[in-house]
Amino acid sequence: MKRDHFLIALFFAITVITFYLFYQIVVPFFIPICWAAVFAILFSPFYERICKRIKSRGLSSLVVCFLIVVLIIGPVTYLFVALVDEAIDAVASVNEMYRSGRLDELLTVDIPVISTVKEKLSGFGLSEINLDELAKDAMNRVTGVVISQTTWLVANATKAIFYFALMVFTMYYFFKEGSLIVAKLKRLMPIPAEQVSSTFAQLGDIIQATMYGGVVIALLQGVLGGILFLAVGIASPVFWGAIMAFLAIIPFVGAFLIYVPADIILMIGGSYIKGLIVILIGSLVISQTDNVVRPFLISGKAAMHPLLLFFCILGGIYLFGLLGLVLGPIIGALFMTLLKIFEYTLHPESITSAKTDA
Rounded to the nearest 10 degrees, how much is the dihedral formed by the CA atoms of 17, 22, 186, 212? Predict the structure, then answer.
């Protein structure tokens, strides 16, 4: 028995060491692998449609990877460069308004709602908040993130190109052999096969609902917001559209945090027609995109609870930076799936009762 215990302990020690070494091997390429997985998840329905026409999984994977690079990553790279230029211009503009005192004039204008809020805050000692300092600091922080990412890309151009090629290469195999990978994972689950299928189906629904219902809709709102700002002549439309898209991803927040202040500034400046256009299109088109488009994208799929999604996105950004916008919700979905597996393991009757209710 002692020999058996020793062999078991030795086996687990070797296993732990092997897993640790494998982790050390893979972790340098964590970012390209994760982006490849994100694109594979997002475009898996499109890939399956291509497979039905071409009949070859390898060729279908090549076609989808090529389309993603040409039709999505290329334009996004161009927009990112434009975003950096406009971010620098936006900061310069805000700094100029700050130095000239125009920013203080805009933020201290006598608006009844703001005056009421200041009166309420006075009891907490917050009525003397310097809004122009806050606005200047917020703009500098947002732009600092954008510029820091660009600086990394420029300073590590060779590494960035290598990571990009690695992402496309990995994405190809995720498309081609994704079903085999999922099948292997299913075999490792310590629950009955029927429950495994149900659990993985639920995981797929949560991930796709979160990705399509969050990222895609947020991008659409950002594009609409940028076009709106361009149409009414607001400076840096790409930059403000990107900020609207970022805010739209986060639950309980939204693009209105950008277009409402823009409307107020236009109204204060005497551009009443432009201000009316911004508030009407912003409230009736941009903000309503979520209610109109979401049912078509995630119909019949179980979305993640907004509160959990909120913390997953914020925590994901804190841990992984920009990648956390999509990786955070995916990790949250995996966490919920693992909880469901534990529930099935501890209470196998729950799946039976769920079927009966259905």
Answer: 140
Q: How far apart are CA 319 and CA 328, in angstroms?
A: 9
Q: What is the distance between the alpha carbons of residues 185 and 324, in angstroms, rounded to a whole number?
A: 24
Q: Is residue 300's pLDDT more than 70?
A: no
Q: pLDDT tier at 24 (50, 70, 90 boundaries)?
A: very high
Which domain covers residue 200, as residue numbers?
Answer: 188-358
> Does 25 reside within a domain?
no
Q: What is the pTM for the complete model shown?
A: 0.64
Q: Please, which contacts does 301-304 make with residues 24 or more away whose CB atoms are closer than 8 Å? A: 301/205, 301/206, 301/208, 301/209, 302/202, 302/205, 302/206, 302/209, 303/206, 303/209, 303/210, 303/213, 304/206, 304/209, 304/210, 304/329, 304/332, 304/333, 304/336
Report whether 286 contacts 225 (CB < 8 A).
Answer: yes
How many structural domains does the chain have? Answer: 1
